[in-house]
Write a structure and sequence with these properties.
Blueprint lengths: L17 E11 L5 H8 L5 E3 L4 E3 L5 E3 L4 E5 L9 H12 L3 H8 L5 E10 L10 H9 L4 E7 L16
Length: 166
């Protein structure tokens, strides 16, 4: 993380406006098998989907996976509610693989990018990225998307927010 002291939003494991967050690298390998993605990257995913596999969800509904996927997620590995720490965890894993990611990006039919899930505890005060995360994502030529959700009003108790002064 940065040593710059002028940042508006300091790192906060308990990010008061967030109830949950994580970051994940999503690779949809087209005709390539997810195991071949693992071999190319030299890295195992936290989850993989293989087209044609039949799965049953927690409610007992069965479906066939239509699209293969290779996913590396911070969800079970980073406990912080600060999305920057999740992105940093993910980038630490994939920055050394820049050459391999470029190979994947140049194969027809493969799509990949970073997806961030951020759940708002109070309906405002969204995630923050610092230039370090944005620079690293850009250096890997990855897009970054955000899925933002809102908890039902009153479902999460948070400490009083400290107002920002500019």
């Amino acid at each position: 993380m940065s040593t710059i002291n002028s940042r508006i939003t300091p790192i906060s494991d308990g990010y008061p406006t967030c109830s949950e967050c994580y970051a994940q690298l999503l690779i949809y390998p087209g005709a390539m098998h997810p195991d071949d993605v693992s071999k190319l990257l030299g890295l195992e995913p936290t989850q993989k989907n293989i087209a044609g596999t039949v799965v049953t969800n927690s409610r007992g509904k069965t479906r066939e996976i239509k699209l293969s996927g290779w996913f590396l997620s911070s969800e079970q590995y980073v406990q912080s509610k600060d999305l920057r720490e999740h992105i940093d965890w993910l980038l630490e894993k994939i920055k050394p693989l820049k050459k391999e990611l470029i190979k994947l990006q140049n194969i027809d039919g493969i799509t990949l990018g970073i997806d961030c899930v951020w759940r708002s505890a109070v309906g405002h005060g969204g995630p923050t990225l610092w230039p370090e995360q944005m620079r690293s994502i850009s250096d890997l030529d990855l897009e970054c998307s955000f899925d933002i959700y809102f908890d039902p009003e009153g479902s999460v108790s948070i400490p009083a927010l400290v107002p920002r002064t500019f």
